[in-house]
Amino acid sequence: MAVVALALLAACRVPYGPSPLGAQDQPPPKPNPKNLPPIAAPPGDDWRQFGHDAQRTHVTREALELPLAVAWTYTVEAPAQTVANAIAAAGFVHLHTLAEGNGQGTNSGFRNPWLVTLNGLTGEFRGTFTPQKDITSGHWLAVFEDFNVVYHDDALGAYDCRTFADKRWVGLDRWGPLAVDDAQKMIFHVNNLMADGDPPLIEAHKFTGASLWRQNVWPVKKMEGTVPVHEVNIAGGLCLAAVRYAGTGKNPPKDGLYAFEPQKGSKVWFVEGKFRNLCSGAKRTYALDDGGTLHAYELRDGKEAWSAKLGDVVGAPGLWRDRIVALTSEGLVAMGEDGKILWTVPVEGAATGSDNDTTAMILSAGGRALVCTKEGLALHELEKGAAVGAWKADERTKGLLGGAGSNPIIARGHVYLCGKNSIVALWTASFLRDQATWVIRHAESLKRAGLISEAVRVLAAIEATEGVKDASKKKAAEVVAAIVKEGEKEFEEVGRAKAKMHLTRAQGLCEAIAKKYAGTEVASKASAEGEAIGKQLEDPAVAAEAGFKEAQALEESGKKKEAAKAYRAVMEKHGETEWGQKAAEKYKKLKDYDK
């Protein structure tokens, strides 16, 4: 991530050869689908880069409301093992996934961390893009002009997420953070390491890939210099870079906050210091140092307006209106434009960690904060910090997240949470209200695909959301009723199995129905009946009779081999019972089939 270890990078750059698993052990890349229709994305705000925008405000125009409902999940495929972060634009969501250890590209036979593009509405796989890489640090991607995904890990370039056409601009050994400004059509970044390519530097590029200018070029030899901590902003007509230099190279630039004119790169002002985060407003930029002190600088001249202790900050702070908002070890904190703490509220089970290029919250222009917790997400008002409510993840979703989710983003009615090896997409209440017809159609398609419990969960979200039109709620209820009717029909088979004393089969049917129709009355009924049958089968005499009659049914249907095994199982487990003895007699006649 932001902190790069020179020794690790040196160790990872090995000659061409096998990966730790061996190239022959790596599965082939999943082919990109062809001729997929365009994504019909609903209107809304996007999250195009780290911190939402080039100022790193973390503020979205999307509404943050409860309830939230799981829309879909996606788990990365080997050799990828981790979802580092995600961005979303124009109905697509783009994941930066990582493999363990160094991640080499397909042509070298080494491990291959993929950039994965999905349909943001459904989680449908749209394709992967793999620049030739040696090692990735998991830096955030960015998007410009809706469909161009910019990467800066061992190369600087972009790909079109509709065609996956490569637009590499600078290859080999470039890493660092990006800030993209659509209005000025520029990409601003830091290259943080001298390996086999460019030295550490600060640079701006046009959207065509042409370099606008370079600054702070540190002419060191290979592995002699790095920029272990860095952050960039584009704000107030300036390109801002907070950088820190390390290594054995001579005469490094000074650590601190640099402000450059965006088109020609002339230095406007500089403030010395050791900063880890930046976020900017219209008139000031706010720099957080390692000690948790926030420094407010005037954009016009770099003069410090004030500095104040913010605390042990988790991830990156954001800027809502005139106040800094951050998650700290003490809870959610708001600091006013004068540097005074306005309020601090505890957030139970809040996420922990302090990398400067990670985040644990989303802020909304409407005045709310959504914060990652071990249980899911907590929603707070930003005026005074009051708790609004929470979304609690179920056990399956918690497993996918691997604890507290990280790097949350929101785009077009979907909250996306990065997990251990997965991404979880949640529908917002506003999406469920505004797109209820689409959601119901989606549930019906899940039903047709046999994903009944998923369909029921989706429909339940419609029924539970306030403000959904009555007609939509009625339609959702009708679809659920039809599903329940099908489940009741399947449940009738349980009664028929019980009448034949096929209790093991009846119990298995109950378990299958309870799973398939989870969330409905028929699932509850099947679960209760399955438990009752299980208690019956605790009696050895009953279990023996049930086992014998099920074996007998197999024999009568001509399945002699299966019947012999079933009789043997009853004989061995319940030999002391009357039905166990009958099973032994039957087995003598059929034992030749049990080979």
Describe this structure in words.
There is one protein chain. The protein is of the alpha+beta class. It folds into 3 domains: 6-18 and 59-434, Methylamine Dehydrogenase, Chain H; 436-536, Serine Threonine Protein Phosphatase 5, Tetratricopeptide repeat, CATH 1.25.40; 540-593. The chain is built from 11 helices and 32 strands. It has a 5-stranded mixed β-sheet, with no helix packed on it. Helix 6 (470-499) packs antiparallel against helix 7 (503-516). It is elongated, with a radius of gyration of 29 Å. The two termini are 58 Å apart.
What is the helical fraction, as a range of percent?
A: 25-40%
Q: Roughly what is the average pLDDT, rounded to an integer? A: 89
- Low-confidence parts, pLDDT < 50 over ≥5 residues? 1-26, 102-111
The number of helices is 11
Write down how many β-strands occur, each being a DSSP E stretch of 2 or more residues: 32
Q: Please give the oligomerization state of what you see.
A: single chain
What is the C-alpha radius of gyration, as a whole number of Å?
29 Å
Overall 3D shape: elongated
Query: What is the class of the largest domain in the CATH system?
Result: Mainly Beta
Read across the widest sheet, the strand sequence of neighbours is 1-26-27-28-29
Q: Proportion of β residues?
A: 25-35%
Count of domains:
3
Per CATH, the superfamily of the largest domain is YVTN repeat-like/Quinoprotein amine dehydrogenase
CATH architecture of the largest domain: 7 Propeller
